[in-house]
Amino acid sequence: MNEHPIINHKKDLSRGQRAADRMTAFLGSWAFILLFIFFLVIWMIINILAAMYRWDPYPFILLNLVLSCIAAIQGPVIMMSQNRHTDRDRVAAKYDYAVNRKAEKEIQLIQKELHIIKQLLDTSSRKKTTKKHI
């Protein structure tokens, strides 16, 4: 059990997988949520109040299309990242199981050795007490 498999897993990621992980991390942050709300509010304000530069008047059909495209891209990227995290967790669980089994075997060996030592001490102490009584 030299190196934890999660470290190896990170080394084996492709550029696209790393990008998907970074994108998913950003999409799940408060910074993204706040930036996205700011973007939506600015889009609506400009298209409601601007007289000349109105590219998407109310009911914001273009905004609806943009949001649908963003959702269509976000969904698969998030699923790719989650699938990879599931694979990583499965590998980590197998590694943890192997470590736990090894530790269990070592503990059982130590318990056997302690039992032998206890028996030897008990035998030794009985011999001393019998010699004192004689």
Question: Could you explain the architecture of this structure?
Answer:
This protein is mainly α and 134 residues long. Helix content is 84%, strand content 0%. Helix 2 crosses helix 4. It starts with a helix and ends with a helix. The mean pLDDT is 89. This is Cyclic nucleotide-binding protein. Keywords: Membrane, Transmembrane, Transmembrane helix. It comes from Candidatus Magasanikbacteria bacterium RIFCSPHIGHO2_02_FULL_47_14.
Outline the secondary-structure elements:
Layout: H1 5-11, H2 15-27, H3 30-49, H4 61-133
Helix pairs in contact: 2-4
Protein name: Cyclic nucleotide-binding protein
Organism: Candidatus Magasanikbacteria bacterium RIFCSPHIGHO2_02_FULL_47_14
Pfam family, one: DUF1003
What are the key terms here?
mainly alpha
Structural class: mainly alpha
Mean pLDDT: 89
Shape: rod-shaped
* Strand composition percent: under 5%
Secondary-structure element string = HHHH
Low-confidence stretches: none
Keywords: Membrane, Transmembrane, Transmembrane helix
Protein name: Cyclic nucleotide-binding protein
Organism: Candidatus Magasanikbacteria bacterium RIFCSPHIGHO2_02_FULL_47_14
InterPro entries: DUF1003
Summarize the structure.
By secondary structure, the protein is mostly helical. It has 4 helices and no strands. It holds the Pfam family DUF1003.
